[in-house]
Amino acid sequence: MSTLTLKGPYWVTVRQHRRVLRAVPALVAVGLATMITLRVWSGGPGSDRTYMTSEYYAGEALRLFVQYAGNTILFLPLLVGAFVAGPMVARELESGTWRLALTQSTTAKAWLGSKVLPAAAVSVLGSVALIGVYRVGWAGVGGTWQLHWADRGPYEATGPVLLGYCLLGVALGALVGQLVRRTLAAMAVTGLLTGVVLLVLGTLRWSFLPVVTQTAPLAGSPDPTLPPSALVMDSGFLTATGERLSESACFERMEDLPGCPADLNVTARYLDFHPASHHWPTQLIETSILLALAAAALYAAFRLVHKRHP
């Protein structure tokens, strides 16, 4: 965001935090260069990575880099929220420097907007860039250990849900920064709240859409017809009445003997899963929830600043 096209409090905000703004494209550039280098070295997703060859080591390095990159991206919304809450909002309220802006024909809402808009713009552009960079590497190792499309990290780093979490961090930072008015405390509270939302929605997201259920005779297994990229949610036995029993129900009664006790009246096996086609609908539903939460927090932040400083 160029300071030449900005005026008033927006220019001041960008000028104050120009080092952070410059660090974002630098981080993206370094990540992209690393991803491309590892992809080229490993020979691409279709290459024959024979054990103990340079391509094999490059492929393992790419997989580890993508894995750690996904885990790191999980903390991005927390960092965004903490930065907005602390250095951008609470620090000015704590030190009283925000009063200077109000003496320059600037309203309190405009002052808060000058914090929120640049932070939101950089968060969106940075998130889109990081998603693109991550996908460059993930395309070569996706589906391997801990890099399934539904795993924590790859799920957040490959779709619009990352934008939703970052915008929620911005909105929470604008609100908490005004409520707490202490830099470190505001950063801690905002990071905690954003992390709680990450954990809660991460737990609930696979209940947004109904699972697909496959059944098989007791002597068979539904696994052979399961799509290789599916996310398995539950499996077990079905009785003649349709009741579901856990996988361990028969073993607990029969121990080392094969089969199930006759009194359980087990007739089939079942398996619940989410196919890969549920990825984008789940992403869009979760993103919608996050945008609604961000809008509510942002509305509360502007109402608060107007109430305190009309």
What attributes characterize this protein structure?
four-stranded antiparallel β-sheet; 63% helix
Spatially, the strands of the biggest sheet line up as 1-4-2-3
- Overall average residue pLDDT: 87
Sheet with the most strands, sense and barrel status: 4 strands, antiparallel
Unreliable spans are none
Shape: elongated
How many beta strands in the DSSP annotation?
Answer: 4
The overall number of domains is 2
Run of helices and strands = HHHHHHHHHEEEHEH
Instruction: Give the distance, in angstroms, between the N- and C-terminal Cα atoms.
Output: 29 Å
How many individual helices? 11
Characterization of the model:
- By secondary structure, this protein is an alpha+beta fold.
- The protein has 2 domains: 3-207 and 278-308, no CATH class; 212-277, no CATH class.
- It has 11 helices and 4 strands; from the N terminus they run αααααααααβββαβα.
- The protein is elongated, with a radius of gyration of 25 Å.
- It starts with 7 loop residues before the first helix and ends with a helix.
- The mean pLDDT is 87.
Secondary-structure map:
Blueprint: H1 8-16, H2 18-42, H3 54-73, H4 76-95, H5 98-102, H6 108-141, H7 154-157, H8 161-180, H9 183-204, E1 212-217, E2 231-239, E3 244-246, H10 249-254, E4 266-274, H11 279-308
Antiparallel strand pairs: 1-4, 2-3, 2-4
Helix pairs in contact: 1-6, 2-3, 2-6, 3-6, 4-6, 4-8, 4-9, 6-8, 8-9, 8-11
